[in-house]
Structure formats: structure tokens, C-alpha cells
Amino acid sequence: MKKFLLFICVCGCFAATPLLADVFAVNFVNTTDGTLGNGPFTLGWSFTITQTIDVTDLAVFDQSSEPLLESHEVGIWDSTGTLLDSATIGAGTAGTLEFDSLGQSWRDVSAPVVLGPGTYTIGATWNNGLDPLIFPGDLGSITTGAEITFGTNDFIAGGSLTDPTNTTGDTASYFGPNFQYTATPEPSSMVLLGTVALGVGLRLRKALRKAN
Asked: Would you list the domain boundaries of the chain?
């Protein structure tokens, strides 16, 4: 019985730890959306992370939750140009309709990958110019996840998914692609949690011994 109570207590300590929820890498206070008439392109943006994250879904902007008018390939590349993750979000209502923390709508599909600290690029194909992207005139109108630092806009011509290696800087950025992720707890946090749980368990065990 004592061991059972000790087990319940320790499990309760872990259960009380909040679960990390998926968040969008970029969220939008407002949008200046438009379409491109001179495609096809792979369009996107670069970002830096300082903590390991678990990417769960790749997404594309879906204006007003309307069905997409074309299919979009989405990918993430590392700083050497290696494609680490990719998925295709089909035309229509393919994928899952999601909303970022500020209310903008996206369509996403599951595409899990772990990204360590470093610089990456996300891009998606826009072949027909039918679906709009977000072109924020002021980067103050966007917010990023705590682990994400926005870098530059990125683009390259062509109809197939390709690392978008060209940029004009950090203005007129191509926020068509996006992704959802969870942050991986730092090892030090896990050690602290384990230490606390162990301490609570030992105190309970000592109290139970005294009681008996």
C-alpha cells in the first residue's frame, strides 16, 4: 500500500507538468495578401532557432478558410541546402484547417521532423498564382514562436519544390508556407523535474514510515 501511494504521488508530479501544445512558427496581427502573376516559384522565408523543436505539421496560407485553388508542395531545408522535411497540400479542402494564435487560417498536413539549433529555410510552390500569400508591409505586424527568429524572404523560380536561395532581405516577405511545432524541453528542465519528483517521493515515504 505504501509503495502504491508513493507511486501515485510521483506520477501526480509528472502529470501536473503542463503538456507543450503545437504553435505556429509565425502568427499574423493583420494581413496584406495578394497573388503573384509571374510564377511558378518556390517562395518562403528563413528562420533561426536556438533550441531543439519538434516540427509536427507543414502548412500554407488559406485566405478566409476558402478551398485552395492549387496544390502546394512545402519543404524545410537546412543551411547546406539539404531538404529535411516535405509534404504536399492538395487543392480544395485537403489537409486540416487550422488557425494561428491571431486568427489567420492555414491548411496543414502532418510532417514530423526534429530541428536542432541553427538556420533553416521553409518554402512552398506557387505555380499558378491562384492562391494568395501574405505580404506584411511591416514586420511589426507578425509574431513568432518563442523559439523562432525570422530571417529573410526567400525565393527561386521554377515549378518544382526547390531550396529558395535568392532573397531581397527582410521586407515583402513571402508568408505562404508556415509550420507548427512544439519545443523540446531542455535537458536541465527534465533533470529538475526528476529531482523534484524524487524529493517529493522520499518525503512521502518518510512521512508514511512515521505514521506507521
From this structure: 4-15+191-211, 21-184
